[in-house]
Amino acid sequence: MAEAAARQRALVTPEGMDLRLRLAEASERAAAFLIDVAIIIGALVVMTILCLWGLAALGKDSGPAMAAIWLLGFFVLRNLYFILFEMTPRAATPGKRVLGLRVASRSGGPLTADAILGRNAMRELEVFLPLTFLLSHMETADAWISLTGLLWTGVFALMPLFNRDRLRAGDIAAGTWVVKAPKQKLLKDLAERDNGAHAAFAFTQAQLDAYGVKELHVLEDVLRRFDAKTVKAVAERIRRKIDWPDNPHESDGDFLDAYYRALRGRLETRLLFGKRRVDKFDRD
């Protein structure tokens, strides 16, 4: 239990919501990377077979062209495989998805293309560049050069073991980390859960117009996780924002549930008239 708590981190969103995340273990990251490498190698094998088939069909004169195609394919796989998959909404390569992992921004904001490009550009320096050099100069490189290449790769490969957030060099440079994002079953719509407590709350139109769709989604996530400390903090923040009167006997969970229902109803009603408030800064 203590070990699991040690992997927990607070992720504060731009709205001030404190969401709890669990960081990926170094072993999980390594396993995900090995799965991705296996996929890349499998794609290279298929590409090699196709290039050899093309060479046999077109004759020896096509040798340089086939070699160029193979090298281009290898370059694309090595450099774009991780980038393109991490730019998807799931922010995860197939290997990470198998292990239930994803990349996230340590700032709590959205994961940007610059961060993804930065963290994956570092992988070239961490792994591929020294290994490519060693493999291409295996017969001519002396022992010191080989040892230097192995130490270079080893230092970067073992870096996640020597920092508490299990960050590799690319994560440090790009401001990212890899977190657990297990596949979840489809949850019941929060609006369908009715304990009757929401009927005691009546919000004005001005109080409901304090937030938009973005905050509604964050609030829904808070209610689904229902971490007591987070629920209390979020409830206090919303009460201050909408000038809700103090009531020591009022349940934070009931208040958030009631506000979520009322805010969702308000936004859906506005949407029927073609008005969509994106977030609390969107003034129409």
From TrEMBL:
Keywords: Membrane, Transmembrane, Transmembrane helix. One of its GO terms (cellular component) is membrane. Residues 24-175 form the RDD domain. It is found in: Membrane. The chain crosses the membrane at residues 30-55, 67-85, 143-162. It holds the Pfam family RDD. It is a multi-pass membrane protein. The keyword Membrane applies. PANTHER family: SLR0254 PROTEIN. This is RDD family protein. It comes from Phenylobacterium montanum. The lineage of its organism: Bacteria, Pseudomonadati, Pseudomonadota, Alphaproteobacteria, Caulobacterales.
